Amino acid sequence: MRCPFCASEETQVKDSRPTEENTSIRRRRVCPDCGGRFTTFERVQLRELTVLKRSGRKVPFTREKLQHSVEVALRKRPVDAERIDRMISGIVRQLESSGETEIHSAEIGSLVMEALRGLDAVGYVRFASVYRDFREASDFQGVLGELARDVTRDMGDVPQAGTAVPAAVAEGEMPGSAHHDQAVAERKR
């Protein structure tokens, strides 16, 4: 493994251990030339995937680009990095196990949207604004309306016409969140 600090070809592994989900191996490395220390992760890759862009271009799929997109959507949000990593791993597993070697970018975007919807509503809206190419405030209102309908459907309530966003949305009780699931269970009692 090449040292990211001095580009030396010789680095030594000082520690190896599996991650908590046993989906990758974390290795601590040191460079004998400059003394730099860094961490690498080793993951299983079932197959090489190619992303088919809207323009028709084909580019290699990279987990890092997917992770970066999700991290941008979740920037400054109270979502644990481990949950983000599990979400990314789940999406990658879905793509790799689909049997296809060429994946349309729209399919990847849909999987990310679905996962973010259950993870964090703000991250979902941020990602949707880029993925769906929002141009006006009404685009945001449409997505917020979808989220509000999901919340009220999950709670068994039917909103009245002209009603503001349900209190559950304002309180952060989004579908799939632990807070939401607990609130729904309490309301059913």
Strand percentage? 15-25%
Instruction: State the domain count.
Output: 3
Please report the total strand number as a whole number. 6
**Coarse structural class:** alpha+beta
Q: Which range best describes the helical content: under 10%, 10-25%, 25-40%, 40-55%, 55-70% or over 70%?
A: 40-55%
What does the main sheet amount to? Answer: 3 strands, antiparallel
User: Distance between the terminal alpha carbons, to the nearest Å?
Assistant: 56 Å
The best one-word shape is: elongated
Order of adjacent strands in the largest pleated sheet? 1-2-3
Write the H/E string, N to C: EEEEEHHEHHHHH
Which stretches are poorly predicted, pLDDT < 50 over at least 5 residues?
157-180
Number of helices in the DSSP assignment? 7
The radius of gyration is 21 Å
Mean pLDDT: 80
